[in-house]
Task: structure prediction
Amino acid sequence: MDTKKIIEEDIIEDQGDEDENLKVDDNAMIWESKYYRALADYQNLEKRVRDERGEVIKASNRELLLRFLPILDTLELAQKHEENSTLKLVIDQFLATLKSDGVTKIQTLGEKYDPMMMEVVTTQMGKEGVIIQEVRTGYLLHDKLLRPAQVIVGDGLKENK
Result:
């Protein structure tokens, strides 16, 4: 065989190997890209499931707390009518437990009316827009409204004497 022909065949064979190597490299890059996309999708799914689970737990806690607040209201009403040290202790423990779970009372008496935190039950003579009396205590859960306070607000009229 002719030497020139042998060299040409080797060159053509080498080019075929290079083309095959390029195809393998392209395939590897495609599969690597697919792998990273699938991994990112999976990580996003894990995060979304974790966030949704946390939201379900928060909603459940909120609902449970809302069911307990009327019991606390009843205990506080009983304490107003009859001074009882045992009842006061129970109320204090109840409030301490709520506070440890992020529940705090909304301060109302003497404060300016805040429609985002309070509901007006009625108005009475007194300084306009200032809370005169609290009918039902309002609460925040981690600085978000859990239950609005029900209040009586001054209407700005003065008492005639």
